[in-house]
Amino acid sequence: MILLFTPHNIASKNIAERLIESHGFEKKGNFWEKEGTLLIETNAKTILEVPTDFDTDCIVVLSTHKSKNHEKVLTAHIPGNWGEAGAGGQPRTLNIAYASKLKIFLQEIKKEGEKIGWKTSLEADHHGPTCNVPIIFVEIGTSENEWNDRAAVSAIASAIANAIKRDEKFETFFGVGGGHYAKDFTQMILETELAVGHIAPKYVLDEMDGEMFLQGIERTVEKVSKIIILKKEASSSHKRKLIELAEKHGIRYELV
């Protein structure tokens, strides 16, 4: 696993510094290392421009999360674009999701976040970069106050340090429906033995076609066992379309 950061992103820099100061990452030439996990400074101008041409089982990007509501929240998600690429990456291109790793990070973030009273949330797939290996963003939200919050930085650094020690595998599904903040899927991941790979929110479903549906199934490290559709968080026409796609491609589906 490789952890990437840039000093040009406040939370990214702060998390990396805490990993070095408190969690045993030691300087090895132009990177830091702990038990086979590398921490690499990229010097990218923005967090969306980090280089991704690494040979690794998973890239984890240390990042800010931005929102107008200044909520104290720790987030994790798979980057990728269901449609246009307004924030980097390739249009209509999903990355390779590592659902079990995403679940592990979310579990550890939840555990550490609870200690300081912060929320934990998955987000639907969004923004770049696009790369050829599995990639996860781990973020502190949502404004400069939160990005510099020492307790939040310590919490997410501890969560990362704990998560990289774990290597469990979980049954994986493709999640569809709901909003950008994947409240229902966050709860599902934290309360069951399931893991989610890609998450397609309801606002991308008008343009969902067979190609993007298959990317949601196929671009995942684990074999996706089923698609879970939030029946109250998708329109009747969207549900019909998704069920038709699932039946066409022989994918099991559940309405929850």
In short:
With 256 residues, this protein is of the alpha/beta class. The chain has helices at residues 10-22, 99-116, 144-147, 150-163, 183-191, 210-218, 236-248; strands spanning 2-5, 26-28, 31-34, 37-41, 59-66, 73-77, 80-81, 93-94, 119-122, 135-142, 171-176, 194-200, 224-229, 253-255. The chain is built from 7 helices and 14 strands.
Structural summary, described in words:
The structure is a single chain. By secondary structure, the chain is α/β, with parallel strands linked by helices. The protein has 2 domains: 2-163, AF0625-like (Aminopeptidase, 3-Layer(aba) Sandwich); 171-255, AF0625-like (Rossmann fold), CATH 3.40.50.10700. Helix content is 31%, strand content 26%. The protein contains 7 helices and 14 strands. The strands form 3 sheets. The chain has an 8-stranded mixed β-sheet. Helix 1 (10-22) packs across helix 4 (150-163). The chain starts with a strand and ends with a strand.
Write the layout of secondary structure elements.
Elements: E1 2-5, H1 10-22, E2 26-28, E3 31-34, E4 37-41, E5 59-66, E6 73-77, E7 80-81, E8 93-94, H2 99-116, E9 119-122, E10 135-142, H3 144-147, H4 150-163, E11 171-176, H5 183-191, E12 194-200, H6 210-218, E13 224-229, H7 236-248, E14 253-255
Parallel strand pairs: 1-4, 1-5, 5-10, 6-9, 11-12, 11-13, 13-14
Antiparallel strand pairs: 2-3, 3-4, 6-10, 7-8
